[in-house]
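Example record

One chain of 506 residues, shown exactly as stored in the release files.
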Amino acid sequence: MQFLTSIKTGLIKTGLIKTGFVANMRAAAIMSVAAGLLVACGPNATLLSEADEARIGAQEHARILKTYGGAYNDQRVTDYVEEVMQKIAQASDKPEQNYQITVLDSPVVNAFALPGGYTYVTRGLLALANSEAELAGVIGHEIGHVTARHGARRHTTAVGASILGTVIGNVLTNSTGINPNVAGDLINFGGSALLAGYSRSQEYEADDIGVRTLGKAGYPPEAQADFLAALGEYSAYRRNGRAAPPVWLATHPSTTERVARAREEADEFVAKEFVNGTAPSGTLQSGRNRYLAIIDGLPYGENIKQGLIRGQRFVHPDLRLAFSVPKKFTLTNAPDRVTATHSNGMELLFDMAGRKEAQRPAEYIRDDWTPRGVRVDVTPIKVAGRPAALGSLRQGGKYIELLAVEYSLTQLMRFVLIAPDNLSGNAQSAMQSVRRGVELLTEKQAAAIKPQRLRVVTVQAGDTLDTLSRYMTTGDDRRQDLFLALNNLKKPANLTPGMRLKLVVD
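Predicted structure tokens for this chain:
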């Protein structure tokens, strides 16, 4: 984990080093002009041949594997997903395309496709889907992007953005006096915002293609809408009550909009393909029972090699360490960092960092972690019985606390807590709680940590939402919410004997 090589870099990335209101306004205006120029290129413009698309997909494949923790190695699961992919591919608008699908070993709920037919679904998405038809709908959507050549069009836009970025950089550097590195960050941010995903129209087009492909492959076409609805419920669970961003600020259509459109498209398909608009019984199969049998036992959450989140606690068996965050913080694990965010704007970052042999934590904070000229108050302390140091500073309207804890002769555990300046007292209390929760595990304690898994159970007479969700071992007080989201259920959940449902258990 190397997410903050210096606090200066982190401050720039989190917007704590200000470049001036006028400069930012100029940058925004320039990016607005750039966006307009890119749009003017036309939605159908493409510079790539199909051979180019295949080459780009092959080149990016290794990077995707690295970013997402590699491929998930369970032959039974991967063979099954490949089977579903081929069924959808044969029903697609380009059955002759060479499609390749990879299951990524990531808890993130995601699926995407690269030019050239390289398609990906995550282990986290498999955990959320509730039938083969829903998985097929996701694959159909991604194949829709491939057959409509959306990736090629986006690449063309990216080329335009790169050209414009050079001009923008020159303008920012020469006319505003912004440091070139900061100018680069602004350009990257603007480009990322502009090119982060497909356009609304492209997402809608891929949805429509996916629905039609589902039906042609023999699946209920409404399955795509079912999965989008489940995704909406899961997103609400992850937000933990925080408001969703305004629809008009989103690049993608809102989930609610997409669900409604997908259901309309499904109804249109059935009306056109079947007499009286009703599919004969048994014609369209969801494959729910087979799907649940395949994912029974699937690991849930992070790969144990990257550490695990257990409610408010992060544990890493290989590093033999653990720490806890206060309530109302939401933990997120990534290959290069662990983050914890609070709805009031506080953010905690954790990673491991190298140090000079036997360098004291206080010296590390003063000499290596903070840039020259930045005032930082440092206090030597003990954490989990180890030498440590706590630093604090204010920068750009933010209050920041830095915690360095000795891990070995050459390594430190690092915590950064960033809060609005008016919440400095809250930040101090939160960091104090984190300090108390740091733990160095014994070999026995580390060996006892196991990944969570999905278990499929059959509802028995007398089972209720309350009784079943109690079996969930998520380590927090929102077991019912996760149970409902994973099974695409809403309160009151009317459970009937014989239903098959997913639980998360140790």
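Notes: The chain has three domains: 50-152+199-295, 323-447, 451-505.
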